[in-house]
Amino acid sequence: MSLSETEIAQLLKLLRRTEDRELNCEQCLALVAEFAESHLAGKSIPAGLQAIEQHLAVCGECLEEYEALRLTLDGLRGGRDA
Amino acid sequence: MERTNDSWLKDLTQRSEPALVELREALLRGLRRGLSGRPRADESFLEDCTQDSLLRVLDKLGQFDGRSRFVTWATAIAIRVALGQLRRSQWKDVTLADLVPATVNQGGNQLAGAPAPDVRMQRRDLLVALNASIQNDLSDRQRTALLAELRGMPQDEIARQLSCSRNALYKLTHDARKKLKARLEAAGFTGDDLIATSVA
Fold first, then answer.
1. Where are the domains of chain B?
2. Residues of chain B with C-beta less than 8 angstroms from the C-beta of A75
3. Do A69 and B72 make contact, defined as CB atoms within 8 angstroms?
4. A82 in a structural domain
5. How far apart are CA B89 and CA B81, in angstroms?
6. By CB distance 3.0 to 4.6 Å, which of B4, B21, B28, B91 could disulfide with B50?
7. Domain of life, per the record (chain A) (predicted)?
8. How far apart are CA B46 and CA B65, in angstroms?
C-alpha cells in the first residue's frame, strides 16, 4: 500500500510548518479562547499567542475546533441568537 | 446584565444552581451555532454534549486564567467535547492495523501531471528521501500514529488504541515530523521545495 498523492501533499505541508517547539492540543485549548476573541476584535495577536497560529497549521482537529468557535463567536457578535 | 468572569467562577465553584442553568444554556447555544449544518449533530446529541461539557468545564474551573471571557473559554471546551464525540462515532470500528499496514511503499509514487523534467526529477528525489526516512528514521509507533493521522483517524482514537494520552500522541507525531524534516533538510531540500513538491 502506498501513500496517496493527497497524503504526500498533506505530509509535506505539515513538515513545512513543523517547528522544534510547538504547543500541544491541551495547551492550544487553554489559549484558543483569547486567540479567537483577539481575532474577532481585530486586535494584533500578542506574541504569547502566535504559537497558536502555528499549532492550528499542523493540527487539523484543533483547527476544526477553532473554526467552530469562530462560528459561534461570529454568531454572538451578529446577534443571531439561537 | 452579563456576568463577570469573577462572578462565574465564584458561583460555579459553589455549584450555584442559577449559574449552572445559565452556563448550560450558553453552552447549548454555542454548540448549536458552532456545529450548525453537521448532519449527526441533532438536538439530542447537542444536549448530551452540553451535559458532558458542563461537567468538563466544572472539572477545569481551576485552569481558567481570566484572559478571555469565561463563556468563550467554556465554549471552546464544549466544542472539543462535541467534535471529539462526532469524530469517535465515525471511527469506532476502525483499527490502526486496518488503517496502517506494517509497510508503506518504498518510493514509486506516481507523479501527478507532467511537470518540467527538472521539477519532476527533484520531486522524485524528494519523495524517495521522504519514503526512506519514513521507513528508516521513524519508530513503528511514530509511523503508525503519523500515517493514521494523515488518513484522518481522530487523535483521541489513535491515542486510545496506542494506550497513551492525547498529549503523548502529539509528542510522538511531533517528534516524527521533526525527524522527517531534519532528514529532508540534511538532504538539501528547503521549505520551498516541500511546498513546490506538495502542489506539483
1. 5-91, 98-199
2. 33
3. yes
4. no
5. 12
6. B28
7. Bacteria
8. 27
Range of the domain at A36: 5-77
The C-alpha cell that represents B200 in the structure block: 506539483
- Over the stretch A26-45, which tens digit does the pLDDT of each residue have? 999 999 999 999 999 888 88
Residue owning grid cell 506516481: B110
Interface predicted TM-score (ipTM) = 0.89
Written as nine digits, the cell of B198 is 506538495
pLDDT at B107 over 50: no
Evaluated on CA atoms A54, A57, A63, A69, the torsion sign reads positive
The percent of residues above 70 in pLDDT, for chain A, comes to 90
Instruction: Answer for the pair A34, B140: CB distance below 8 angstroms, yes or no.
Output: no
Residue at B138: amino acid letter = L
- Cβ–Cβ contacts within 10 Å for residue B90, how many? 13
| CATH for B5-91, options being 3.30.70.260, 3.30.420.10, 1.10.1740.10, 3.30.470.20 | 1.10.1740.10
- What Å distances lie between residue B159 and A3, A27, B2, B99, B145, CA to CA? 22, 17, 39, 14, 8
Domains of chain A: total: 1
Q: Scan residues 44-83 of B and list those with Cβ closer than 8 Å to A.
A: 63, 65, 67-69, 72-73, 75-77, 79-80, 83
Amino acid at B191: G
